[in-house]
Amino acid sequence: MDSSAWGLLIQGAWTTLWISGISIAIGVVMGLLIALLRVAKIPVLHQLLGVYISLARATPLVTLVLFIFLTAPTMGVNLNRNVAGIIALTLNTTAFNAEIWRSAFNNFSKEQREAALAIGMTPWVYFRRIMLPQITITSLPGLVNEMSFLIKGSPAIAVIGVVDLTRVTNRISAVTYDPLPPILAAAVLYMLIISLLVWLQRLAERKASRLAV
Amino acid sequence: MPETAAVSIRNLSKSFDGTEVLRDVSLEVQPGEVVSILGSSGSGKSTLLRCINWLEQPDRGDIRIAGDRIGVSDTGKPMSRRELAGMRARLGMVFQGFNLWPHLSVLRNVTEAPIHVQGLSKAEADERAMALLEKVGMADKREQYPYTLSGGQKQRVAIARALAMQPKVMLFDEPTSALDPELVGEVLGVIKDLSKEGYTMVLVTHEMEFARAVSDQVVFLDKGIIIEKSHPSEFFENPKTDRVRRFLELEAPAV
């Protein structure tokens, strides 16, 4: 592999990183909002979100990517490949994150709330200062786990022509007729990205252990 | 004219799922007074305490804190969340299970409400908190997190946390029931100091000797009704009812 092949690989890795990164960022926040809406048990909305979560969790990523990319034009929206990829990854990861957040909400102790209300906090101050920080800490291991699943599933966006870290290896071997080196190099890059997340996860778990009273 | 009562409870009733746990309870706590609520489990004593700061909403009756009604605004409608929070800030509560916030250090547990409810600066809140942690003997643990503390230490921090809001009345809900026997003393010691300093306190407890030593008034609840209300010496030496006499024989056998 020459330096231009490495250049392509790094470009592919960058594509994987930024598309996954945006999806993760939106997905974590959207997951929190959806969990909040579900915990509030607003009729109809509660069921609708439940259906969304079940569908998004049951649909293979590749199918979801294709579905978004192919249906958007029929509704008069012309989606750029990258945007379609981000939407599909976000729809997928949001659903999983919503469930992670929701279980943290449901397991949160009511004594924490009583201590906050008794001392004179409004429900909003309680949510912001007492509940959310703790729920974030307890959810982090699960969220980081889901992040690494998403990154490992992200080659699905190659089906609509996004040149990510996996797809780029095809392009390199199409020139060199030697598929093994680029695949190995890509594997190493994936491992680097994932090990960064694993390291983050360990930090998160150490923080979470503090909450076990 | 008598002083306005620190806490005034009138004709309070409360049911859970059709079971009446408090029946027409009335009680006045004067400023500076220590009142102990006794009774066997299920007598409604914790519910009574939790009604005072509206953690439980009574079905009937009214509760006033230094003359102001809690839970119901002047127009007769339920209080807004903000009004209710303002009333609750005047009452400090200490729970059986401590309920410290585990994501905050000892110092931040104590400064949290002064900063984010009362709007104190961090420096002012720190100063107030350190004085209180000093008082409960926890100043050297200020940077530690709750999970590193013993039950007695947690409860002392919880007391400092409640005091940091400078409440008019302190409510204690079985503050030593979750503690190992050898840790009970350190918490009771702190509460006793507070009673000497003139804090107004309402205390639900199973510690008979302690109730006798610190209280100005003892109230005995049985099946949601106050059946005795008297001075501790009268209550413990000369109970008026058979029910209390039996209770005392079981809970505090004569030494």
Topology (SSEs and partners):
The complex is a heterodimer of chains A (213) and B (255).
Chain A lengths: L2 H37 L5 H14 L2 H14 L6 H26 L3 H9 L4 H31 L13 H10 L3 H30 L4
Helix pairs in contact in A: 1-2, 1-4, 1-6, 1-7, 1-8, 2-4, 3-4, 4-6, 5-6, 6-8, 7-8
Chain B lengths: L6 E10 L2 E11 L4 E5 L6 H8 L7 E6 L2 E2 L11 H8 L2 E4 L11 H11 L5 H14 L15 H13 L5 E5 L7 H16 L3 E5 L3 H7 L2 E6 L2 E6 L1 H6 L4 H10 L4
Helix pairs in contact in B: 3-4, 3-5, 4-5, 5-6
Structure commentary:
The complex is a heterodimer of chains A (213) and B (255). Chain A has 213 residues and is an all-alpha fold. Chain A has helices at residues 3-39, 45-58, 61-74, 81-106, 110-118, 123-153, 167-176, 180-209. Chain A has a single domain (17-162, 199-209), classed as MetI-like fold. Chain A contains 8 helices and no strands. The longest helix of chain A is centred in the N-terminal third of the chain and has 37 residues, at 3-39. Chain B has a domain at 102-166. Chain B is 36% helix and 24% strand. Chain B has 9 helices and 10 strands. Chain B has helices at 45-52, 81-88, 106-116, 122-135, 151-163, 181-196, 208-214, 232-237, 242-251; strands at 7-16, 19-29, 34-38, 60-65, 68-69, 91-94, 169-173, 200-204, 217-222, 225-230. In chain B, helix 3 (106-116) packs parallel to helix 5, helix 4 crosses helix 5 (151-163) and helix 5 runs parallel beside helix 6. Classes of the chains: A mainly alpha (213), B alpha/beta (255). Chains A and B meet through helix 5 and helix 6 of A and helix 2, strand 6 and helix 3 of B.
Condensed summary:
The complex is a heterodimer of chains A (213) and B (255). By secondary structure, chain A is mainly alpha-helical.
